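Hi! If you just cloned this repository, the fastest way to understand the data is to look at a raw example. We've pasted two of them here, unedited. The first protein comes first, obviously.
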Amino acid sequence: MKNETQKRILYLLEYLYKETDESHPVSAQDILAYWKGKGIEAGRKSVYNDIAVLTEAGVDILCDKSTQNRYAVGARLFELPELKLLANAVESSHFITKKKSGALIRKLGQLTSRAQADQLNEPIYMDGMAKPQNETVYYSVDVIQTAIQERRKITFQYYEYTPNKEKVLKHNGFRYRFSPYALIWNRDFYYAVGWSEKHGKLGQFRVDRMVSVLQTDEPAVPQGSFDPSAYVQKVFGMYPDDLQTVELLCENSMMRSVVDRFGEAVHTETADGGHFRAVVEVAPSPPFFAWVFTFGGRIQITGPDNVLQEMREMAAWLQ
């Protein structure tokens, strides 16, 4: 008898979580029918008693009292708007494969009622960038994060594409030895940042292009004063070129774009009634110049001369 009561309460909890929400309550008759389908015969009194037990245990059960009381789970770990936000992030991520996106969204759906879970499958607008095919990337992230926490080196191979879009391992399958310091999310891609023994300096690798990632027993090269947030801000576009101090002349309407790119701590000063100057530390690389070109002259590089010359050469090449 005791075991049957326990099973009955567990089935009731499962039923309420899967089938009910504020817009989809169930009646005592519905609960009795569900129990019967599980091989449990009970009466309405058992429904009332078990609802009371769950409520006393902290389950938020709403009761719409009328001719026939109707019950539904109220507060959950995640509310529907929160789950929609998470589902949209998973669906739109270019880091997560289409197959894995579907699996993760189905798991998110288990955190709410069946009716609300259907709302998580609504497609959202995508910007056209293809989803990746590399399913092992999730396990690579796990290995890298563990190595960061345990301060261990990792080894891996890295691939690139041939002109025929074939994947080939770089340097004939060379295994990189790497001391990971941080995982950085940039422009919808994961990058492992750390000390590269092959290059003898700080570097970064796109995680979805890393294969056969293994943690070693070797201690990582100490990271010293490495600051992930400063690294992201300074190494513009994830390019490992030498950083330089660059002065920009910007129209006043460009302040938002400058702050979005370099943060609120960026040094700025008024130039005239319609312009301000910004002094930034960047890697003067194609992504940086492309960012400047984006604004059609509303942001201009005014120094130093070598950076100006590099941009002129890039502009000439584009003509």
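Ok, and the second one:
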Amino acid sequence: MGIDPGTGILGFGVIDVIKRQMNLIDAGVIKTSSKDSDAVRLKTIYDDLKTIIDENHPDQMSIEKLFFSQNVTTGMTVSQARGVVLLLAAQYNLTIFEYTPLQIKLTITGYGRAEKKQIQMMVKKFLKLNYIPKPDDCADALAAAITHIITNR
């Protein structure tokens, strides 16, 4: 399972590997309202992600490490969402792997400064999809999962 952490939008992607072939199981986003309190938003993330884990039974979680240099406030709220994700992973005894955005871009595209569109196209290619996973947060979560699979073959 790959996770692109966020408070407003959290991306997730579940991939299974059978005989070295990656297969998309589930993917999407969890959205919260900016009108809600932080506590309500984090509970929504917790409840929705718990349901996704219960339905898909992943055994490992690949999560994007935080990187922020401009907006500390956004970084703090994303950190809170990331904490909820890590808590759920621990509750379900999922093995946690963390990758920086640079590591993900390098693994997926071969270029550390790849644009979102390039990542989306490569996710489509790796998973042999007929469409580009949308929104970006979903594609980024799948990219985190694919990075883990490639890194640990």
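That's it. A detail worth noticing about the second one: Strands lie at 2-4, 9-18, 21-31, 60-64, 95-99.
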